[in-house]
Amino acid sequence: MSNDNRKSRRYSVAHGARIVWDGCSSPQNCRMLDVSACGARLELETAATLPNKFMLLLSHDGGLRRECCIVWRSENAVGIKFHPPFPTKLKQPRQAN
Fold first, then answer.
1. Which structural domain, as residue segments, surrounds residue 71?
2. pLDDT tens digits for 35-93?
3. Which of 8, 43, 63, 72 could staple 79 via S-S, CB 3.0–4.6 A?
4. pLDDT score for 5
5. Do the beta carbons of residue 20 and residue 29 sit within 8 Å?
6. What local confidence, expressed as pLDDT, does residue 20 receive?
7. In a domain, 96, yes or no
């Protein structure tokens, strides 16, 4: 039996992303190792200088982005929470009467 208390299922991925925050001169590269609707685990060169809140750029042009906060930190990885979380179900289109 698993001790995992996460609110939503986590999926393994290997997706490049970039991190930006107020006052940063250039985006910091990272790799998303796993992701769920509520958050993700990121691997980066060093996590010590990362602020507690930042923007995660998920697309090349930065159009797909998520506001994040750190929930845990190690030397070269962070666990983040998305604000707001991704929707877990897509809204159904309204039916015409």
1. 11-83
2. 998 999 999 999 998 999 999 999 988 888 999 999 999 999 999 999 876 655 545 55
3. 72
4. 60
5. no
6. 94
7. no
Question: For residue 93, is the peptide bond before it cis, meaning its omega torsion is within 30 degrees of 0?
Answer: no
Domain with 45 in it: what CATH number?
Answer: 2.40.10.220
Of 43, 70, 38, nearest to 55 by C-alpha is 70
- The answer to whether the pTM exceeds 0.85 is no
Contact 51, 68 (CB under 8 A): no
Could you tell me the two tokens for 36? 């769920």
Q: How far is CA 95 from the centre of its chain?
A: 34
Report the length, in residues, of the chain: 97
Residue 78, domain member (yes or no) = yes
Structurally, how many domains does the chain consist of? 1
> CB–CB of 78/50 below 8 Å?
yes
Q: Is residue 57 part of a domain?
A: yes
Cβ–Cβ < 8 Å for 86, 39:
no
